[in-house]
Amino acid sequence: MSSADRQIRSAVPGVSAEEAEFEQLMRRQAVMSMALGQAAAEVVGLNATQLNCLNLIALDGPLTAGQVAAGIGLTTASTTAILDKLEAEGHILRERDPHDRRRVTVTINMERGLTEISPLFIPLTLARTRLLGSHSPEETQLILEFVRKNTALLGEAIERLRAMSPRRKSS
């Protein structure tokens, strides 16, 4: 049993060895995802936070600066500075909302994203697709259900931790 397994099992009574290994693997996957984002960001001359902004905008855009800030957990002022840099470098486009001219949203510059950033992730995407395809349709549905539920749990954990933040309580 690894020290991380022991740590998890001592912190959470009743956790089995298999559950502790699962939690350790989930933590390792989180660290590796962060390292992957950092490595990809470096290739295209960004930092990991800037790439996270782009990823959020690509997934959920168009978004306002406030929505991006809420999504990545930064202040609106910090996020605006990041968006200014991303716009100046051609990664995003700012557009006025046709229904509310006071509202400005950001979207991904697909040409830049498709030529510079997406190719960095194609090998991983293809490998994951092959991995998922190696499972039966029933297993695939179970995996997808797990990932959906885990994504929701992560969102809940983020909200819980943000509510505990002294920085957010004072603002």
From TrEMBL:
Residues 1-152 form the HTH marR-type domain. PROSITE patterns: HTH_MARR_2. Gene3D superfamilies: Winged helix-like DNA-binding domain superfamily/Winged helix DNA-binding domain. This is MarR family winged helix-turn-helix transcriptional regulator. The lineage of its organism: Bacteria, Bacillati, Actinomycetota, Actinomycetes, Micromonosporales.
